[in-house]
Amino acid sequence: MRFDTQSITARLLANPTPITTVALQFPEGLVDHAFQVANQLEEQIPGLTCVIFSDVVYGACNIDDINCRLLGVDAIVHFGHSEIVEVSSPILSIYVPVTLEGDVEKTIDALTRLAAEKGHRNLALVTTAQFVEFLSNIERELQRRSPPFRIFGVPQAKLRKFEILGCTCARFPTDVDAIVSVVDGDFHLEAACLSNARLPMYRLLPQAGSFEAVSYDAAGRIARRQEAIQCALEHLRDGKMVGIVFGTLGRQGSLSLLNVLLKKLRTHKIRHRIISLHEVLPQYLFPHKDVSFFGQLACPRLTLDWDDEFKSAGLFLLNYFELVKAIDLYAGVLARFDDIEDYRLVNFCNGTHGELTYYSS
Question: Metal-binding: present as a keyword of the record (predicted)?
Fold first, then answer.
């Protein structure tokens, strides 16, 4: 894999104030290239020092400008993700998405076969940042050929058309028949399932041009989360203490969303305690014995993917979306919350879900 370090160098040199120290941040799948990139940048800019940040990186929300300030770093280069978090500090932040290609003809053939065999006419395509350009090429080619099916992509917040996150996927229009995920892993694909629980899902491999049906019990997973919301409601009615866990891994926690939650809690006189955590793990929650249950403002998927682990440790954890629903039920703002269509993964859906998003409009 090659990185365009020349364009990074150009950005660094164009900064109004000289850049002498740069932090490099990679997700797990790219961290093996860290030394290669650091060496190239230091060769291209005499006197430059690169610092490799090796803490875990789950997504673009983990950009770590705060540690940059502690280390006296002038700029941070974040690899592998799209820019979704605005860094308000004076530190220059550069996002470098990694682009991957597939086989256009094989992918179009697979989509055509899928539509014909399954009787689908309207397909919603979803992918990660790496394949966005590839799907844009597919869209242009399909427009030229006019096949007997249509493809859809829904831009969300700062994400590009077709791009989703593990914590963010839109609800697709009612005329969409199925979702096709052009993603290797399951994390992003599951977000599409959870936000569109009644639609069939397929995984398409763009290099091989093959597809397969995906089996994921989104309805069952959502039903368990709705039960957790009802359980939290009972705790609130009993006047129990709520622990608000603010995630400090990079920019994972949203201050504006924290303020929305605090306003709700104070308005309805709900007892609460704010807890700051770099990583939300059971061993860090154990000491807080006075807390009846926790609501976390880190990654919404924690409470979906690690629910069994927290339960086995005797801990009860909601994400912020679920906590807001529990508070609204407690306050009588919401009469019920028992339809799977009501559940959302909208962490970065700017402007469409108001107080339930990272940007909290």
Answer: yes
Cβ-based neighbour number of residue 268 at 10 Å: 14
Which residue range forms the structural domain that includes residue 54? 5-97
Contact at 8 Å (CB) between 26 and 60? no
Starting at the edge strand found earlier in the chain, the sheet holding 210-213 runs 150-152, 122-127, 178-182, 201-205, 210-213
Q: Which two tokens stand for residue 302?
A: 């924690």
How many residues are recorded in the chain? 361
Its pTM stands at 0.89
Question: pLDDT digits over 335-361, tens only?
Answer: 999 888 888 887 887 655 566 777 765
Strand, helix or coil at 206? Answer: coil
Smallest Cα–Cα separation from 273: which of 261, 255, 283?
A: 261
Question: Which DSSP letter does residue 194 get?
Answer: H
- Angle, CA of 188, 193 and 195, to the nearest 5°: 95
Q: 318 with 234, same domain?
A: yes
Domain boundary among 197, 213, 229: 213
Question: Which token pair is 143?
Answer: 């427009």
Evaluate whether residue 346 is within a structural domain.
no
Beta bridge partners of 165: 168
pLDDT digits (tens, 9 = 90+) for 46-85: 999 999 998 888 888 889 888 898 899 999 999 988 888 8
**Per-residue DSSP letter, 69:** H
- Torsion sign over Cα 57, 60, 62, 64: positive
How far apart, in Å, are the Cα atoms of 325 and each of 34, 210, 233, 339, 359?
Answer: 42, 40, 9, 13, 18
